[in-house]
Design brief:
mainly alpha, Arc Repressor Mutant, subunit A, two-stranded antiparallel sheet, 3 helices, 4% strand
């Protein structure tokens, strides 16, 4: 059974991320929350990814959010940065 991690203390009343926790479970859960803002089977430009990350945080560092989404596998990107996409969830 998966344990649910509560990230409410990292969200403002509009649901925007106010900070990323240094604790891995909370950090991953927050990134998972942000990844839900992206659609599977859609190709994003870097500008579009930045805009979504910027819209969903209050601390003004969409660069770190974009990098973390990619590093943690929530988003994929072409090596030249020309295309980003959200991978399909694994089939159960």
């Amino acid at each position: 059974m998966e344990q649910v991690v509560n990230i409410n203390r990292f969200l403002d009343k509009l649901g925007r991320i106010t900070q990323l926790s240094q604790k891995p479970p909370l950090r991953i859960a927050t990134l998972c929350y942000l990844a839900e803002k992206f659609e599977v089977n859609y190709n994003y430009t870097e500008k579009e990814v930045n805009a979504i990350c910027e819209k969903w945080n209050t601390f003004g560092d969409y660069f770190v959010l974009r990098r973390e989404l990619i590093d943690q596998g929530f988003l994929c990107r072409e090596p030249d940065g020309s295309r980003y996409w959200k991978p399909a969830p694994p089939k159960k």
